[in-house]
Predict the 3D structure of the following.
Amino acid sequence: MTDEIIMYPKCNPEEFPELFTAHMSAMTTEKLESKSAIAAQLAYRDHQIQTLLKTAAILAGVSETYHKRLFANGEGNATRSV
């Protein structure tokens, strides 16, 4: 058994047919036929996803901090620090 990372696990496009069809159509229309052109689009999409995940993590941290402050006194009353 190797320790290689699998970037493209087998998937079933029938689980998300609208997305699959949209991508196939766009790739055909935009003539994305080479591996390089498709890889560039995947890299761009990965970058967008990473940015969104980082933003979501920041927002989750802010939300958790706010929640802790809101219920810090055990009565559900917001506490303010000046």
User: Anything to note?
Assistant: Residues 43 and 49 are 10 Å apart (CA to CA). The chain has a mean pLDDT of 86. Residues 35-70 form the longest helix (36 residues).
